[in-house]
Amino acid sequence: MTGEKANSSLNNPSDRRMNGCEIVLQALRDNNVEHIFGYPGAAVLPIYDEIFQQEDIRHFLVRHEQGAGHAAEGYARSTGKVGVMLVTSGPGVTNAVTALQDALMDSVPLVCLAGQVPTSLIGTDAFQECDTVGITRPCTKHNFLVQHIDDLAKTIHLAFRIAASGRPGPVLIDMPKDVLFAIGTYVAPDVARPPSYQPAMQGDQNAIRSAVALMAEARRPIIYTGGGIINSGPEASRLLREFIDLTGFPVTSTVMGLGAYPATGPNWLRVAGQDGSHEANMAIGDCDLMIVIGARFDDLATSRARSFHLARRKSRSISMPRRSTNAFSSTSAFGATPHMCWRI
Questions:
Q1: Distances 45 to 42, 52, 86, 95 between C-alpha atoms, Å
Q2: What is the CATH number of domain 205-343?
Q3: Strand, helix or coil at 84?
Q4: Torsions phi, psi of 244, nearest 5?
Q5: Are 116 and 106 in contact (CB under 8 A)?
Q6: Domain extents for the chain?
Q7: CA distances from 116 to 113, 121, 123 (A)
Q8: Residues 193, 155: Cα–Cα separation, whole Å
């Protein structure tokens, strides 16, 4: 920590020298955050001091860190924005693991701001200290340990970009207390943007032509949709309905994909899988072409993946998956779901 005086105003863009807590709040503003959910603890009290000195970002106090995570998930689902949760070190982080895992499985964009003991105490079994990065690595899309104040703003901007891009998911930022008290330089999101990340937003034309040819030849096709369509926004759902009206193909869905196609629609077979309808499962079992949009073949849908794959050996599939790899795809038209529906 330096001897410089921290900038007390976050609204002066000409002065970019701030303490860590001010950087956190300014980074949240610049990423269009208006609401956060959290539960205070010793390691994040400095951030709470800054929260109560401003009015741009509203904080919702929960009674348990897991509740903060689920509330942030619900906020992200209902608004389309990245949900933000704030927890303290040690038990605060471990209480948040269930919500982080849930967001990872359901592809919900979430940023978890976690306090941590000072860097000099990490790994010493200090009070409310745990291996946050190691514990949360399996249940996050990515996680960070900020060890220098000048990396804090860039890390927060990158976390929001990772959480919302590609297949959405939770990102955790571990912030030691001494970093939050230190003085550093704030950088804006456009400065911190990584130039190397250029995801494909349009489908492969050759793959699309192959997909159209398969659909033209199919006699017993079915469309299998999932949460990827919901996560892609209302436009993706509208294009899905247009696609179904155009082709007349029957459609089924995972639980996460409910709502993308109306349950009152004439082509609706209801949910597929272990807890799904008889009609949907029979249609999947007897189809000669399966069009998979924004879904994955989990155990509830397939029961035993190997047996399901062998049963499908005489059929073909077209996949626009939530993940970039799909073991059951014979033709993949990669790109954002709305573009794919429109192209086909």
A1: 5, 11, 11, 18
A2: 3.40.50.1220
A3: strand
A4: -65, -40
A5: no
A6: 17-192, 205-343
A7: 10, 9, 11
A8: 10
| CA–CA–CA angle 135, 40, 2 (5° rounding) | 85
Closest of 211, 238, 233 to residue 332, by C-alpha: 211
CB atoms near residue 188 (< 10 Å): 15
pTM (2 d.p.): 0.79
Torsion angles phi and psi, residue 111, rounded to 5? -120, 125
Q: 311: which 2 tokens? A: 């049963």
Give the separation between CA 156 and CA 180, rounded to whole angstroms: 13
Q: Parallel, antiparallel, or unpaired for β 221-225 and 35-38?
A: unpaired
Q: Which two tokens stand for residue 1?
A: 């920590």
The CA-atom distances, in angstroms, between 185 and each of 60, 111, 203, 216 are 28, 22, 40, 59
Strand partners, 263: none
The amino acid at residue 232 is: S
pLDDT digits (tens, 9 = 90+) for 135-192: 999 999 999 999 999 999 999 999 999 999 888 999 999 999 999 999 999 998 886 6
Beta strands in 182-304 (DSSP E): 183-185, 221-225, 251-253, 268-271, 289-293
Q: Decide if 176 contacts 148 (C-beta within 8 A).
A: no
- Please say if the pLDDT value at position 284 is more than 50: yes
Q: State yes or no: pLDDT of 331 exceeds 50.
A: no
Q: What is the CATH number of domain 17-192?
A: 3.40.50.970
The answer to whether 17-192 and 205-343 have equal CATH topology is yes
Give me the sign of the Cα torsion angle 54, 57, 59, 60.
Answer: positive
**What kind and span of H or E run contains 18?**
strand 17-19
Say what the pLDDT of residue 167 is. Answer: 85
What does the DSSP 8-state code read for residue 5?
P
